[in-house]
Specification:
alpha/beta; two-stranded antiparallel ribbon; 11 strands
């Protein structure tokens, strides 16, 4: 009989692709992990991994089994949470968020939620839009918050809130003192932008596609913090959410440029897998996040 512990071991090995690392994470011996994998393969009468040196890589059969194993573990966590009453919210949520939301909005809200329900544990995964959508599709997240577009058929998307993005520079840039910045000014500038798979980059490019003839991107960076560090005392332009730069603007490090011919507004959305069972904990957390702006928590 296949056990939940064996499934947990299989999922961990599949993600880490290493028996030793999986054993360390699970608090088991390497022998115990290897034995569990061997037992699963015997039960299924087929191999799940290819052994490549010290790595263990999922084969074609293993890649089919993994999302089903992840879904089953998720449903078991849901079952555990269902055992708790509405007045005793407990459990563990795995939350995904794209970088702007996951860095500047969600952590503070999680902190507020924990103050109300101190028996709740969270894991927050912060990545770009493409990765978050893939993780939702693979049942690895209970809920996600994104700033980009997710087209996966397995995912339900709900509007959360509006966000404004601004083109900005350091105060050293000559455009910072200019009354109005023109399209030609933008075309003649050097840009530092988020990476291609990010929601921020996608929204920005869609907004300027019919406004600018060319865009001189000299750096693509996945970290908002790294972009801001590069922008300080530089002559570059960039575009980020106001949530990401509001402190630096207040401190006088950055200047939001006056560009009346361009308005960049986007939706922040909430994602669930369509087959996700919503526990009491998940329902309460979702309601809390939906009402956060109305309750002046953001």
């Amino acid at each position: 009989m296949l056990t939940l512990r064996q499934l947990e071991i299989f999922i961990t090995v599949a993600r880490l692709e290493n028996i030793t690392k999986a054993a360390e994470k699970l608090g088991l011996t390497q022998a115990a992990v290897s034995m569990a994998i061997n037992e699963i393969e015997k039960l299924l009468n087929d191999n799940l991994f290819d052994r490549v040196g010290r790595r263990v890589v999922l084969n074609e059969y293993g890649r089919v089994i993994l999302p089903k194993a992840i879904e089953l573990m998720g449903r078991f966590r849901d079952f555990e949470s269902y055992l708790y009453s509405d007045n005793d919210i407990k459990g563990h949520l795995v939350i995904g968020a794209t970088r702007t939301i996951g860095t500047f909005i969600v952590p503070g809200l999680i902190n507020q939620f924990i103050k109300q329900y101190n028996n709740v544990k969270f894991k927050l995964v912060v990545a770009n839009t493409k990765t978050i959508c893939e993780l939702i599709d693979q049942y690895e997240l209970d809920i996600a918050f994104i700033e980009g577009i997710c087209t996966a058929e397995s995912v339900d998307k709900f509007f959360w809130m509006k966000d404004l993005m601004y083109i900005f520079s350091s105060n050293n840039n000559h455009l910072a003192s200019q009354d109005v910045v023109t399209p030609e000014d933008c075309e003649n500038s050097e840009w530092v932008l988020r990476e291609k798979d990010s929601g921020t980059r996608e929204i920005f490019e869609n907004a300027v596609s019919n406004k600018l003839k060319r865009l001189n991107v000299i750096a693509e960076i996945g970290s908002i913090g790294a972009i801001k560090a590069l922008m300080v005392n530089s002559n570059f332009l960039s575009c980020l959410s106001f949530e990401a730069i509001k402190n630096e603007v207040k401190e006088g490090k950055f200047k939001i440029l006056n560009i009346p011919w361009l308005n960049i507004e986007r939706d922040f959305n909430i994602l669930f897998h369509k087959d996700k069972q919503k526990t009491n904990l998940l329902k309460n957390f979702t309601d809390f996040m939906i009402n956060a702006q109305a309750n002046d928590l953001i």
